[in-house]
């Protein structure tokens, strides 16, 4: 083998290694978090006279987070007290752009969810509020303090008034999270 052939083989090997390294992706990182209670702020009072929105949402859920290539995919399910003060269920996922720096992670994305919740207050006219399956597509911000694992899921919902029996106030909601070790 002459010098030119050796040089060409070395260059080909280096180019192949560089291409392989550029195409190589870090293995996805999977974590699990507990979804804890949350708080909300409603931007308008309820239509029902003498009623107040529940703004303290006790509940518990589980979140599975998969981080890969600057993206985060989260699956979540749990139960939580809704704005009408009744226990309900939720399940869904979120897809976000992920960034982290100096021990903090911040993700921005969208969360398609299914909520099993009440859509009104109990009333003498309509009786007890029924639970309904409600689909939602919400903007989501996820924050986590990486050393401690404490974080929050933050979302906003626009006001919806489809009927007297199906209405939601505009609100901002913060749900606290804790990474499981």
Summarize the helices and strands and which ones pair or pack.
Blueprint: H1 3-23, E1 29-42, E2 56-57, E3 59-68, E4 71-81, E5 87-101, E6 104-118, E7 131-145, E8 150-157, E9 160-163, E10 166-168, E11 171-179
Antiparallel strand pairs: 1-2, 1-3, 1-11, 3-4, 4-5, 5-6, 6-7, 7-8, 8-11, 9-10
Report on this structure.
- This protein is mostly beta strands and 181 residues long.
- The chain is elongated, with a radius of gyration of 24 Å.
- The chain contains 1 helix and 11 strands, in the order H-E-E-E-E-E-E-E-E-E-E-E.
- It has an 8-stranded antiparallel barrel with strand order 1-3-4-5-6-7-8-11. Strands 9-10 form a two-stranded antiparallel ribbon.
Task: Let me know the average pLDDT.
Answer: 87
Biggest sheet: strands, sense, closure?
8 strands, antiparallel, barrel
Q: Order of strands across the widest beta sheet?
A: 1-3-4-5-6-7-8-11
Question: What is the ordering of alpha helices and beta strands?
Answer: HEEEEEEEEEEE
The amount of helix comes to 10-25%
Class computed from helices, strands and strand pairing: mainly beta
Shape: elongated
What amount of the residues lies in strands? over 45%
- Extract low-pLDDT stretches: 18-24
Taking all Cα atoms into account, the compactness measure Rg is 24 Å
Beta strand count: 11
Distance between the termini: 56 Å
Number of helices: 1
